[in-house]
Design brief:
The structure is a single chain. It contains 6 helices and 9 strands; from the N terminus they run E-E-H-E-H-H-E-H-E-H-E-E-E-E-H. It has 168 residues and is α/β, with parallel strands linked by helices. It starts with 12 loop residues before the first strand and ends with a helix.
């Protein structure tokens, strides 16, 4: 079942490649608990089928990168991209996309988070296996305020522009 407005974001483990060692974080892939990351923050989360895929690379991530300052002006603390890829792939994509700290790219390699929020997409028939749906959600202190899921093959309700307009 897809997560709904008013529900707490379920805890899951997401992986992010860390480039500088700090307290509790080693260089390389680090595991983070969603419940720890969302505490006291307003976060836009967008999910997509895969790193380096056409729409994801040409439109989805670039939109959030280019509109980062507008999200910040609307009180958003962080923007997350979640994909069913590993942290190494997400880090290579981060470099390729020139994200430069505007969006956190999280690997959900086993689809743990995507399954927990009910937003998986079975693309086995296309050779891609289990993936994430394309979606966007707004979370405030761990509570989902709204979620918008794209219809198959569409890119409208989860774009940066659509999310910004929804934030008011």
């Amino acid at each position: 079942m897809t997560i709904q407005s008013g529900q707490a974001l379920p805890n899951a483990t997401l992986y992010e490649y860390v480039h500088e060692e700090s307290a509790g974080c080693a260089i390389g892939p680090n595991a983070f608990q969603v419940s720890d990351l969302v505490r006291g923050k307003k976060i836009v989360i967008f999910g997509l089928p895969g790193a380096f895929t056409p729409t994801c690379s040409a439109k989805h991530v670039p939109g959030f990168v280019s509109h980062h300052d507008e999200f910040t002006a609307k009180g958003v603390d962080e923007i997350w991209c979640v994909s069913v890829n590993d942290a190494f792939v997400m880090d290579a994509w981060r470099r390729e996309m020139g994200v430069n700290g505007t969006v956190r790219l999280f690997g959900d390699g086993s689809a743990e988070f995507s399954k927990a929020v009910g937003l998986t997409l079975d693309l086995t028939g296309r050779g891609l296996g289990l993936r994430s749906n394309r979606y966007a959600m707004f979370v405030d202190n761990g509570i989902v305020q709204w979620v918008q899921v794209e219809e198959p093959g569409q890119f409208a309700v989860s774009s940066a522009e659509a999310v910004l307009s929804r934030l008011g």
